[in-house]
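Please check our next protein.
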Amino acid sequence: MSTANDTMTKPGSGWLIFWGVLLLIAGVLALLMPAIAALATVLYLAWLLIFGGVFEIVYAIQTRRFRGFGWRLFSGLLTLALGIALLVVPAAGVATLALLVGCFLLLGGITRCVMAFRLKPLPRWGWVLFDGVLSIVLSLLIMAGWPESSLAFIGLLTGFSLIFTGIWRIAMGNSLRAPSPSQP
């Protein structure tokens, strides 16, 4: 016999699901409008860098009596300048971000290919090799279309990231609403 006490909703599970649905919707919109999503991503990054740079500068000034003051101040000024540059010229930021992701995929792919051959006697080493080759192919596609494809690439990457983040939040929220074991 089931009672109302058999399911116990943990606090915040509804908000987790709601947030997940919003992220899922944002992800789908990003896939439908990748250029806007790419610009939004770079502007978000720009503001993070601006705030980070300001905090670094304030911290450097507060700790100016300690060793390394000049380097902390320089780091803060550089972070702030990068954020402002991304804010002023977001298209260059999108292109740079796409190139960085392409380089990351290329280096990661090469590393995984080397690792796969070192794992070769083990079962399923081919999956590591497949992942490495796929990363290299993706990086070459990004670089071949760079900088023209940067808006679409970053926008699609943002969309997929939002969708997967939304899915795990919805799944987590639903698991928090799962029925609790019956009590005698």
About this structure: The mean pLDDT is 89. Residues 34-62 form the longest helix (29 residues). The chain has six helices and no strands. Residues 1 and 182 are 10 Å apart (CA to CA).
